[in-house]
Design a protein that fits this description.
Blueprint lengths: L1 H31 L3 E17 L2 E16 L23 H29 L2 E2 L12 E2 L20 H5 L6 E5 L2 E2 L3 H10 L5 E8 L2 E8 L1 E5 L10 E5 L2 E2 L10 E2 L6 H34 L12 H13 L4 H18 L7 H20 L14 H24 L8
Helix pairs in contact: 1-2, 1-6, 1-7, 2-5, 2-7, 2-8, 5-7, 5-9, 6-7, 6-9
Main location: membrane
GO molecular function: peptidase activity
Subcellular location: Membrane
Length: 413
């Protein structure tokens, strides 16, 4: 039930965000005097609508987004009625059209920033003072699973060598057989490189006091660290999990209303950098998505669709990590806001780019004494627009399919 609730919460949050995106276009267009004839939530057959003034508002049957209709978005539009010629959007100054077309993304950014500020006060933001990478503080597990399977301990599984040796939760492992392990990844690699089933000397720190134990490592089947899709091999295991936060160090830090402002700015900056890097990686992740669809392992760094985001929301609520729903809401809004500003038709950024191209070209032609070539013919750009729609649609379908047949999961069930 909690899983279903989490799915619904994220799906509804996305729908509301997109509806507000379209409301941003509509309200700014109306403020400038442009004519807006329709504002609908969803697509497909109309379920319910009403008219107020010159605009029809309503709800469609398929709750996948929304739209608003602004008269005369391009000079080629034939939806301008007699008497409304001056209210056609394309006739307005470029700065007004830019505000209208960017209002959707600005709405997404505003939602994300407000959510970050509220999260900073009531939920906490990631602690920026955490060491990176984290030292090898560990949690001692009850057993080691002999096979390469993600499951709970079962009767007959070997007892954890770390538990038998007397290690405890939050101990910081500093060396294995005298080989320093600065972080948890180094700990795993060092242990796996040892002969399976052999004893090892574990140097650790507990409450600032150094100690040393001898543990008889277990022999288990695991996939190679350098080949996650490879066949399992026999390696050594200590029976610990991690990395754990150092004792007394919080994962998140909360702030007062004023202190939350710079914290929000810092988190937003990190989010912007992360979004830019994610957009750059999209072409490289297409083969990984195809691998996931055709039966291979799902790369956790691949993009997710609305389906994937909703499933992660369900998992988060089911496992009591409601904070992840907030972070998903923030990340999705910021990503959609940036994506919509890309200078490609039919995205908002494509319309903005064309408007400023027209303005720059008119300015240049005036300076060199040539006749203004006028507006861009959108009809000539339709092949490019269709190509963008086709590629975007195929990518969305691929991502949604991967999220259905081989979804990313953050929790072990």
């Amino acid at each position: 039930m909690l899983y279903l609730l989490g799915v619904v919460v994220i799906a509804l949050a996305i729908l509301i965000s997109v509806s507000l995106h379209e409301a941003g276009h509509m309200l700014t267009a109306k403020a400038f005097g442009m004519k807006v004839t329709r504002y609908f939530v969803g697509f497909g057959p109309t379920i319910w609508s009403f008219r107020r003034g010159e605009t029809e508002y309503g709800l469609k049957a398929i709750p996948l987004g929304g739209f608003c209709k602004i008269v005369g978005m391009t000079p080629q539009d034939d939806d301008v009625e007699p008497g409304d010629e001056k209210r056609a959007m394309w006739r307005y100054p470029v700065w007004k059209r830019t505000i209208v077309m960017s209002a959707g993304s600005v709405t997404h950014f505003a939602l994300a920033v407000i959510a970050i500020w509220l999260a900073a006060m009531f939920m906490g933001l990631p602690n920026k003072d955490l060491p990176n990478p984290l030292p090898a503080h560990v949690k001692v597990v009850e057993c080691v699973v002999p096979t390469d399977a993600v499951r709970e301990c079962a009767p007959g599984d070997p007892v954890s060598p770390a538990k038998q040796a007397g290690l405890r939760d939050d101990d910081k492992i500093v060396a294995i057989n005298g080989v320093a392990v600065p972080d948890y990844a180094a700990l795993v690699k060092t242990v796996r490189d040892l002969p399976p089933g052999q004893p090892a000397t574990i140097s650790y720190e507990r409450d600032g006091v150094a100690g040393q134990v001898r543990a008889d490592l277990a022999a288990v089947q695991r996939k190679p660290l350098d080949d996650p899709n490879g066949a399992p091999i026999t390696v050594s295991a200590l029976g610990v999990a991690g990395p754990m936060l150092p004792p007394g160090v919080p994962a998140n830090v909360t702030y007062g209303p004023v202190e939350a402002i710079p914290a929000t700015a810092g988190y937003t900056k990190d989010l912007a950098v992360g979004t830019y890097e994610a957009l750059k990686r999209i072409p490289d992740k297409v083969p990984a998505l195809w691998t996931a669809v055709t039966g291979g392992e799902r790369d956790k760094d691949t993009p997710i669709s609305v389906v994937g985001a909703s499933r992660l929301g369900g998992e988060a609520l089911e496992n009591g990590v409601w904070q992840l729903l907030v972070l998903l809401f923030i990340s999705l809004n910021f990503f959609v806001g940036v994506f919509n500003l890309l200078p490609l038709l039919p995205l908002d950024g494509g319309h903005i780019a064309i408007a400023w191209f027209e303005r720059a070209r008119s300015w240049l032609y005036a300076r060199i004494g040539r006749r203004d070539p006028g507006r861009v013919d959108y009809l000539k750009l339709m092949p490019i627009t269709y190509a963008v729609i086709l590629i975007g649609g195929a990518f969305t379908l691929l991502t949604a399919t991967a999220d259905i047949v081989n979804p990313i999961t953050l929790f072990t069930r």
